[in-house]
Predict the 3D structure of the following.
Amino acid sequence: MTTLKAALVQLRTPASQAAALAQAEPLVRQAAAQGAQLIATPEATNILQRDKARLFEAVRPLDEDECVQGLRSLARELGVWILIGSALVRREDGQLANRSTLVGAGGEITATYDKIHMFDVDLPTGERHRESSLYAPGAQAAVAETPWGKIGLSVCYDVRFPQLYRALAKAGAEIITVPAAFTRPTGEAHWEILLRARAIETGAFVLAPAQGGYHEDGRGTWGRSTIIGPWGEILAKSEDDEPGVIAAELDLDAVAKARAAIPALANDRAFAEP
């Protein structure tokens, strides 16, 4: 039996990388002290800044980001794997990317994934979001090898595109990460439903660390970080939007059992679109 103790760190990330690291570090240490082997943080772990000009000025390349480097050092010190849910970073071409980064227990970067689906929406509440005005979308899905099995990477709005999750599962992912900074109205309406649907469809564990509360830059995020089993069952959940840690023991054998019981991945058939 392969087991993994996974922990999710819920954050309320401020508007600078130094302050972000100062908030995340004690929670990562708390998770490690509880025995977590894999610790996942939310989308935009390193900075949240609504002012586009200030954000563009503040963002650094991945290997120069103070928060990212601090979390890599923590992984090495504590001997744990850390999934930096995403860091807002500058690419080599000068554009920005929303990049999920998996760090091994030696502090090395083992995998990265740039968010593919951009949150370009006009909400009924009047909120308007245009991620594509700031970030270059990724074009490559990512599945990473770990000591416990394969992990598929995604970020926030990706959760609304089930074809990505099916591809990750068919590539062998037994755990799928969905770090997020969900808005409060969409979080209340859809967050848990979407996460449970993705777990059921793929027969995979879903780890969904979230931003929560009202941030320094004025935005509000939903929180309710959640760990879901491959049968769609909730294994652990934050009941509010406060920073904190949740954890669960994952029995990776449950993935094969769920996929054998409902062999939807194996039963795929090609079809002509209408």
Remarks:
- The first strand starts at residue 3 and ends at 10.
